[in-house]
Amino acid sequence: MTLKKLGLVSLSSTLFFFSAKAQISSPDTSINDIAPIEIKAYFNAQSMLDLTTSARVVTKKLLESQAPSNFLSTLNTTTGLRMEERSPGSYRLALRGSMLRSPFGVRNTKIYIDEIPFTDASGNTYLNLLDPVGINSIQVIKGPDGSLYGPNSAGVLRFIPEGFGKPNNEKSIMVSGGSFGLFHQQLQVNHQVNENYSFSFDQAYLRSDGYRQHTGMDKLFFQTAHQWKYNSKGTLKVFGLYSDLGYQTPGGLTQQQYEEDPTQFRPAGGPFQSAKDQKAAIYNKTFIGGITNEYQINDNFKHVISIFGTNTDLENPFITNYETRDEKNIGLRTYLSYENLDKEDLLWEMQLGAEAQKGWYHVKNHENNLGEMGELTDVDNLKNGQHFYFLRAKTRIYQKLSAEASIGLNFNNIKFNRNIPGEEQAEGKIDFNNTWMPRFGLSYSATDNFAIRASVSKGYSIPTIAEVRSSDNRINQDLKPETGINYEAGIRYESKNRRFIADLAAYNYQMDNGIIRQLNEDGAEFFVNAGKIDQKGVEANILTQLIANENSEFLKGLIFSSNLTYQDYKFKEYKIGENDFSGNEVTSVPNWIWVNTLSFRFNKEFDFNILHNFTSSIPLNDANTVTADKYHVLQAKVSWLTSISPRYKLQLFVGADNLLNEKYSLGNDINAMGNRYFNAAPTRNFYGGVKVIL
């Protein structure tokens, strides 16, 4: 099938998993398990048909549908979202955007854990700290929404941890192993102590040797969440997470090296040692803690306040230097909510709130002497402060028309103090202009099953600390925030019994001052602004339950999903020196991503899940002279659940990744020095495990 033909098929996807414990009492039960009717996108739960924005919920069933060691393949079933893994533990994520700013981690997307920002004051998010055992669901809100969530130009992800929400008493332990030295262990305890107090404790250990040389990874993960209803009006939630993560970084390969031996690490070249000789790696120890109090003042008013903090100790021996970072963050998020539910024909609500974060970052660079700290070269102390205030109002008229408007006022600055050995101390302040962030959206229910929506919003994403003070060890005071206006329209249809769901969205985001990663002659990265970037996209998905028959002695259920993302991203005005890249495709963005899934539920509690991901070719430099080839990835998982006693259940599962044994690069280096663009993904590999459920 050619790409041109593929473009005519505006179908698309979502991934499923039928829990062996789920019982289909009606045709729509399984659909509801993987495509919830409601989402808590803006403060209060609301119908998916009522939303004025594009959104999706990645449920626990979906998270369990493929390999239990990460949620990469599951998240990639979401239209407009792309997650990459350069090597075990090294993740990148882009939502309606590109990987231009992402050497690793997340940029221009705001991420929360319930009400607590997971994205710190500097704008960085250590997504690789998480383990799927601690996540109950993931809410994805697409498109810029700085009015309510602070600076972002792509959207918001909200991870709902185990222990928050409806209490349950399930306990389980899982052990699995697989190709390339994979070992994964998970422990989960969900316990309801009484009708007012419940908690969850989640622990995991994950290790892997990796497909490539010098890609070993170890992670120890602990998480706990507590929920206490201390009176009829108040609920207190406590969250804590500690993760100790270490992974080797093999470095990118040239096209020739990639073709000759894709498993090799970056070899020595010129004045630079190899990745292995320099013991290139990242070691991250992070603690995150927060307390949220929710109080229902009366039938109309509710107040929510969260206080949180993080501490990160990070070491990064790299090919060119040895960096250490001590990062501390504190913050507060609070809002007052009013709901008028007295008249069904005129419902309205309003929220007024604020969020503030303060971060302290102590960054030191040494020479890297074959993995050992050498002479001190740079010392920087940076302080990042951001706070914003927001107001939102929404009304629903005659159960047909929903209208909402919100506005935020953002304040952001960075203070720095440089103590370079042998030089005079330097200090300064980068003050980004105070910015108003409006959003307006409409949704109209033409019928009980069909809704039309439209929105316009401003995107605004300030440079992160890692971009202002990148690996060239300079303070870039000229870097400007990304900004722009996003126009979007969409439709959603759900059949009466929810056996068929379809969603279509189109957007046009005109970005100014897009932030783009570059490398200097020493191989150190720095960032520049592109003049203008034209981002247009279409996202379409269908989800249908083809079979739902509890009386069958063979196949009890079958769900099909298909998900298509089309991204037409171009540089409109982008010049660096004598090079004019205007009109080129935006680096790192594939035009097409098409994901299809099939989920079978057989008799005797057998489940079989298949996932297919097609990604088109990807430009790897701004000149568009080098591209990564298109690829098809096929994954599958079989699981069986059985009772081994009145109290215990046993689940056995086996799975496979890259069944077609495709040779492809997942997590390319962008605008790479020495044409080292490629990070080979694993060949065909397998895993299997056992889970005991109490």
UniProtKB/TrEMBL annotation:
Keywords: Cell outer membrane, Ion transport, Iron, Iron transport, Membrane, Receptor, Signal, TonB box, Transmembrane, Transmembrane beta strand, Transport
Signal peptide positions on this chain: 1-22
InterPro entries attached to this UniProt entry: Beta-barrel_TonB (IPR000531), Beta-barrel_TonB_sf (IPR036942), Plug_dom (IPR012910), Plug_dom_sf (IPR037066), TonB-dep_rcpt-like (IPR039426)
The protein, known as: TonB-dependent receptor
Cell location: Cell outer membrane
Species, as recorded: Sphingobacterium daejeonense
Residue stretches making up the TonB-dependent receptor plug domain: 50-155
Primary location class: membrane
